[in-house]
Structures are given as C-alpha cells and as structure tokens.
C-alpha cells in the first residue's frame, strides 16, 4: 500500500517553477475589474458613472487590491455598451466628463490605487467621425478601416470571403455610399480599424499618450487577437460536423483572422511607445480568449511586451465538471509554458463577458477560485462582485439588452446574453442595493440583494468579503515571495497547492472536489508538518482562522477549501 501511495505522489507532485524577482508594482497583486455601468450611480439615472466609482474607491483600498481596470468609459452610441467607441479621447456624458475623470485619478492616487483603462483598438463605432470620413474616401481616413470590393457570383454581389462575425452572420457589411464592404468582427456598428495604415497607427498611439498624460498607469487591450487579418483575405476553413448553424462563428477555423504575426508586432509597438512615457512603467494586459488550446499563441504576447496576457483557464477550460487532475494539468501547463525571463503568471477569476464564477462552479465553490488565484504566484484578476459572491441575475427576454443576447432570440438569449453577470453591484439593503437612488436601474438589481450585499458581509466575521480580504492580504504580504510552487494530487479528489520557502515557511491550499467529506494524510502526500494552522477557509468550510489541524489525519468536509500555514496565527494578525 505504501509503495502505491509513494509512486502516485511522485507522479503527481511535479514541482513547478518559481518566479524571478521583479520590482514592478503588479508583481503578486490583485487587480479588480470595474464594469462602470453597474458599479455605482451618483446622479440617480440608474446607470453607474465616474463620480460613483470615485465615491466607492475606499472599498477597493480596504480590500487592498493594487489596481482597478475600468471597462470603456469613452464616447459611444452604446450599441455594445461602450465597446463601440465614437471618440477614444473623451468621456461619454453618461459616465461624466474629463474633469470627473481627473477627480477619479486624484482620489485613486491618494489611496495608492493604480488606474488601468480599457483600450479597444480593434474597431470603432460606425458613428466615429473617422468612419464617416472613410466612407467619403477623405484622405487619410479612406484607409482607416478594412474595405474590400464584393465578389460577383452568378451576377450577384457577395461578401469578399466567408469570414463570420463573433456575433453570427457575415463579418462584412455593404456600404452603399462607398460601394464596398467593410469588415467587422462584432456588430456591423463596429467597423474594424486597419492597422496597415501608418496614420491610423499614429492616431492610436496618440490615444495612449492622451490617457497616460492624465495619470493612467496602463491599459487592458480588448480583443487583441483580432487586430490584423491576413492581407490576402482567404476563406477560412470550415470545421466539419459542428452541429452549429452555418452562420455561427465557431464553424470556422480562424487561421486568417486571429493571432496574425503583425498583431504581436503591434503590441510591441505600443509597449515601446509606453516605455517612452514619463513616470513608472505602464502595465499592458492583453485579452486573448485562446485559453489553453492555443497556449503557444497566448504565451507569445509576453515576449512582445504584454505584462499580463490574460489567463482565462478558470473561465474557458475548467468548470464544475472538472476534477482535481484537470486543475493540476491546467495550472502546470500554464506555469510551465511561461517563457524564460522576468514574466508573471496571472489568474482571471471572472469578467463581464461570462457567467459569474458562482454559476460556473456553483455557489459552494465560488471562494475556491479566488483562493487558487491568491495562492498561486503572480497576479489575480477579479471582477466587481466576486468579493461578495454575487450571483448571476435571471433576466427575461424583454429585459435583455446585450447585443449578443438580442441577436440570439427569445430562447437562445439565455445561453449567450452577458447581462446576468452585469447587474448592479450590491452595496447594501436599501433602494436598488445602494447602487442608485432610483428604483429603476439599467439592468434589474438581483432580488437577493437584501441578504447578499457588502454591508451585511462586512458586519459578520465569516463572509465572502472577509475571506477575499484575507486572500488579498496573503498575496500582497511578502510571506510567499521566493517560495516554490507545487501542485499536488492528494488522491483522486483533493488538489493541493504548496508554496514552500523552507521547511518552516509554507502555505498550503487544499480543495476537496467531492461534495462529501474525506479524510486525507496531507502530511505524507505533501511532505508538510504534522500540526499546522488554518489561515483562511471558504465560506462553505467555515473553520475559524488559527484553528490547529493535524495534517496526518485531516478531515475535509464536502467541497471544502482551506489554506493552512506553518506561521503562527498571531504572527499573521
Ligand atoms: C474627441 O473629442 C474631443 C473633445 O470634444 C475633440 O476635441 C476631438 O476632436 C474628438 N476627436 C475626434 C477624433 O473626433
Ligand atoms: C509568422 O512568423 C513565424 C515565425 O516568426 C513564421 O514562421 C511564419 O511563417 C510567419 N507567418 C506568416 C504568415 O508570415
Ligand atoms: C454544473 O453547472 C451547470 C450549469 O451551471 C448545472 O446545470 C449543473 O447541474 C452543474 N453540475 C454540477 C455537477 O454541479
Ligand atoms: C416582461 O416580461 C415579464 C415576464 O416575462 C412580464 O411580467 C412583464 O410584464 C414584461 N414587461 C414588458 C414591459 O413587456
Ligand atoms: C419606485 O419609485 C417610485 C417613485 O419614487 C415609486 O412611486 C414606486 O412605488 C417605487 N417602486 C418600487 C417597486 O419601489
Ligand atoms: C439592512 O441592513 C442593515 C445594516 O446592515 C441592518 O441593520 C438591517 O437590519 C437590514 N434590514 C433588513 C430589512 O434586512
Ligand atoms: C496592501 O498591499 C501592499 C502592496 O500592494 C502591501 O505592501 C501591504 O502590506 C498590504 N496591506 C495589507 C494590510 O495587507
Ligand atoms: C527574494 O529573493 C531575492 C533574490 O534572492 C531577494 O533579494 C529578496 O530579498 C527575497 N525576498 C524575500 C521577501 O524573501
Ligand atoms: C513549522 O514547522 C516546523 C516543523 O514542525 C517547526 O519546527 C517550526 O517551528 C514551525 N515554524 C513556525 C514558524 O511555526
Ligand atoms: C496526529 O494524528 C495522528 C494520527 O491520528 C496521531 O498519531 C498523532 O499523534 C497526531 N499528532 C498530534 C501532535 O496530535
Ligand atoms: C473577446 C471579446 O469579444 N471582447 C470584446 C471585443 O469587442 C466586442 C465588441 O465591441 C465586445 O463585445 C467584447 O466584449
Ligand atoms: Ca449615473
Ligand atoms: Ca482587425
């Protein structure tokens, strides 16, 4: 029996890399995403705004996140709620003004919080003056977008190729005035920008400078993988037998529209540009949904100047059906593939484009993902609401506003709409959860707000909020810096992550993937001391901090998740 255990644990306990020392502020930090329409409304119109964010920055400071990134706040017709930009250098009046932005930055700096803006370089709104001039072929704007003649087949005009938009149907829309098709990877109101135009490239660099001059500490770059398309515009191969309608984005292999070589060079040109800006080094985070399936492509962004090529493993590759081994394989794969050099791992728990973590893994396991992001080396990225375990809000078809939901129709919207994860932040139990003084908000407040809200969670010792706060404190402390990382299977159903600096200094995360209790000999499997203390446990597990546990005979309740340590609890207080 012992032989069996030893063999399995040897196979299972691959020791994975430990990060080199870097002085950047984002090393071992948490970054918090704010969805501005839903964070805090300051003027009672039912939509969140900049003054609202400013009024709630104390909350972020208390959590001790290092930075926040804000989804787009720029002038927009709001066809895609801000991801369709009509002026990259001005604030939409719904959110406020440049003066409000100045106040926001000032408050953030006073709280030692870094400010990161969303940069949406792939496309603009069709209401952007550049597009209007491009239609009229006014130089140099004529070349700012991706225009192509149609194909005439049997005397009928057809789009130039078979490319499909992420939101379904052809990625090309005919413009009667210019008598050409324009490319759009999203809605037809979001024409694709053409980075083969030198003038356009210059304009976009100026956009970056505009905001760094206003105190911004870096950018999150939206949908970067789509920046360039193959200049020959070939048809993309059709994937056979997907069972999807032929107008669905996932029926094509996107070999000519994603991760083109020039895209990496574009990121590098922004890196170089930002490095010429005064002040501390600016952070660049890149959004690429390739996940573990296209890991090589994702990793390449590190070498072209991205500090945080978002790791969406917890969103795209793992879910409530994943087992301990799936988590181990995914975590090891990501860490082991980070290129050699001074690069940081990152772990995205949630965002505005997906179901909330409480839905993807179940309410009982919500804290586990933040625990994983906290104990693993590198940057944890959380989305507003994670810190209180917010849940998706069911919305009826007639309440649905997300274009991705609307295009899917009255049945399928339930599977595609991003609205459920975007409802207002639940601050307290007053009108509209304290989000707005109005009882009519742009998306309905989740009715569970009366019990599920920040104020309630602050007033008790055991809540998602108090747990998240301890997790952020653990990451930002220097206690795990220079520690090795081991991802260990403790049998089939328990995942262990050990951060070890020396025999006397370690933190251990244990997750029970069963919904029933299990007793494990963590001491032998993980080579850890016999008596350790609980640093934090998930809300489901509810073991008070400081509780001593005997790791040779450790009882984990169903779905349990705990971080134990060899530091004395008093030391950590
Ligand atoms: C964006 O708005 C600013 C301020 O109103 C204006 O000065 C600028 O010309 C606008 N940019 C474009 C490209 O229209
Ligand atoms: C892209 O770059 C890689 C290596 O840098 C090269 O092997 C490949 O041929 C390039 N692809 C195209 C389409 O130029
Ligand atoms: C997993 O999640 C899906 C959808 O969120 C749910 O229908 C299913 O019951 C869950 N399965 C388990 C094993 O929790
Ligand atoms: C929207 O749908 C809900 C439930 O399906 C219904 O109760 C409500 O009356 C509808 N509202 C409008 C404005 O149609
Ligand atoms: C919403 O507010 C209006 C105006 O203050 C009030 O008349 C109405 O009863 C409120 N509705 C709800 C559901 O609280
Ligand atoms: C609302 O929250 C306050 C403060 O957290 C609490 O004292 C009060 O009992 C709550 N009211 C209801 C109706 O839950
Ligand atoms: C807050 O984070 C900073 C690093 O960003 C860290 O130095 C500090 O110790 C943290 N404070 C607490 C109370 O955890
Ligand atoms: C981590 O290691 C580096 C390089 O050896 C050292 O300079 C630094 O002091 C260490 N930091 C901590 C917190 O142990
Ligand atoms: C950690 O455990 C070892 C072995 O049990 C013990 O000797 C040491 O004192 C502990 N260290 C701390 C900081 O509690
Ligand atoms: C821990 O548990 C093991 C197994 O039950 C037992 O033999 C050992 O004495 C316990 N250690 C302590 C310090 O209580
Ligand atoms: C991955 C992705 O699609 N990100 C954003 C890209 O832009 C579209 C359209 O503006 C947004 O809806 C997405 O959130
Ligand atoms: Ca408002
Ligand atoms: Ca593009």
Topology of this structure?
Layout: H1 2-12, E1 15-16, E2 30-34, H2 50-55, H3 57-63, E3 67-70, E4 74-75, E5 87-91, H4 98-110, E6 114-119, H5 129-135, E7 147-148, E8 151-153, E9 156-158, E10 172-175, E11 180-183, H6 198-212, E12 218-221, H7 261-275, E13 283-286, H8 295-303, E14 308-309, H9 313-317, H10 324-337, E15 346-348, H11 357-360, H12 366-375, E16 379-383, H13 403-416, H14 454-458, H15 464-476, E17 484-490, E18 494-502, E19 505-512, E20 518-520, H16 522-526, E21 531-537, E22 548-550, E23 554-556, E24 561-565, H17 569-572
Parallel strand pairs: 2-3, 2-16, 3-6, 6-12, 12-13, 13-14, 15-16
Antiparallel strand pairs: 1-17, 4-5, 7-11, 8-9, 10-11, 17-18, 18-19, 19-24, 20-23, 21-22, 21-24
Protein name: alpha-glucosidase
Enzyme class: hydrolase
Signal peptide: 1-21
